[in-house]
Amino acid sequence: MIPRRLQAPLLDAALVAVALLDVWAHFDTDEPLRMVCAVAAALALVLRRRMPLLTFLLTLPAVLFSDSILAALAALYTLASLTRHRTLLAICAAAFTISDMTSWPSPNFDFTASSTLITLGYTAATAAAPVFLGQLVQARRDLSQRLAEISEARDHERLLTAQSVLAKERAQLAREMHDVVSHQVSLIAVRAGALQVGTRDAEVKEAAATIRRLSVQTLDELRHMVSVLRAAGGRPTELTPQPSLADLERLVTNSGIETKLQADLPADLPPTVQRAIYRTIQEALTNARKHAPGTTATVRIRHEDGAIRATVTNTAPTRPPLPLPSAHHGLVGLRQRAALLGGTVTSGPTADGGYELRLELPAEGTS
Known about the structure:
By secondary structure, the chain is of the alpha+beta class. It is built from 10 helices and 5 strands. Strands 1-2-3-5-4 form a 5-stranded mixed β-sheet. A hairpin with a 5-residue loop joins strand 4 (about 345-350) and strand 5 (about 355-360).
């Protein structure tokens, strides 16, 4: 298979070679001027794509002085396939016809002779053939371009239709989330508030306050998410103010399990890296709370050798886990987020029956 970028030069070289064969077939050592014109016409074909009109004009002397007309026909075809000026093409075809009928230096036009009229018709047809063929190729090229544009327009239309369907689905999802999830979380917040007021046990009161605070926070985040889902096709809307390393202390405090935080990080990390660290620790603590009740966790974050390494390790659970629903997408999402930043996420059980999740990212972050 010939590479596309070499096809045009090879075709031009082959055409020049064929034109030179035409010169060789009509070679006459007694008429060097005619041979020079014929060879010059054949070599001029290398310019036919960049300067088609000039190439045709350079081939006309060969038609006028010699019998080598192949180069002129090729130049006329190229001009017809590249230009839209039909008047110019008619003039060029007429010039070829007149040059081919002229026996230089003694032209003889006797239109009273039937042979002259036959020759004129034959020569005009010879000149018209490359013109019509070139125009046909040009029309085919234009048609292909129009079909490509139509196909692109249809693809764009399908994309718009898909986006419209997606917008409707997002709006429906927003309604479902608002009607179902927010109602249930609101009930949790109300019941937790009532329990906080009605109990005298300090631990129960603190637990109820935590439940109520987390419920209110969940409702706030849900409200932002619903607004994003309803804003399909509009300007980008942030779900919430994006978390940073400054929020880690609050995350650990509100995690619901005993957690020790050890962080040694620079303050100028990119926001994407900070969010990745925050979301990884958040997911690890959530999994520990769901799947290992009664556990304790340790969060270690350090910066060394141009990389950020975060490790969340929890001990073995002391109580059986609760049967909570899970889509099992958390770790997959963390790995995808880390991969986009040029990092990795690994996880696995520890020797003492606990679990460890490890995140490693380049400090500068890549996307």
